[in-house]
Amino acid sequence: MTPLLLSDIEYAVRSSWGADTCTPEFRARWTPENPARDQCGVTALVVNDLLGGELLRGEVLVDGQRTDYHWWNRLGLGVEIDLTREQFGPEETVTPGTAITRPPRIERLREEYELLRTRVMTQLAHGRP
Predict the structure, then answer these.
(1) CA distance 32 to 36
(2) What's this model's pTM, rounded to 2 decimal places?
């Protein structure tokens, strides 16, 4: 069996995003030109499923005002993985992350998380095209 590489996970995640996996209240602003937009929460959960580690959450600021939260992952030795960082425009900044305990049950974005997870796992099982 071929070992799973981080590049395989990244490819599977990025090729699995869609409007149907992003945060529902922001779905209208999702575009294929910025596919990472509003995918951070579900992406961080799926990466956590696959690699463990911690979930990190920072604030998204525009002109010093919080407009949203941003989620990403931290693995052992302090290695951070953020597959959705490129979603932000130049007017948006993200504060340093705080470790957040993963909830025992996914309530918010459950459908989007399950859909993304299923797509990623299917992609990983079949390999890159």
Answers:
(1) 9
(2) 0.94
DSSP state of 101: P
* Residue the block writes with tokens 């995003």: 17
Sequence ranges of the domains in the chain? 6-126
pLDDT tens digits, one per residue of 4-38 = 889 999 999 999 999 999 999 999 989 999 999 99
Tokens matching residue 113:
């998380």
Nearby residues of 124 by Cβ (< 8 Å), 6 or more positions away: 4, 8, 9, 12
DSSP 8-77: HHHHHHHTT--GGGS-GGGGGG-BTTBTTTT-HHHHHHHHHHHH--EEEEEEEEETTEEEEEEEEEE-GG
Q: Are 71 and 55 in contact (CB under 8 A)?
A: yes
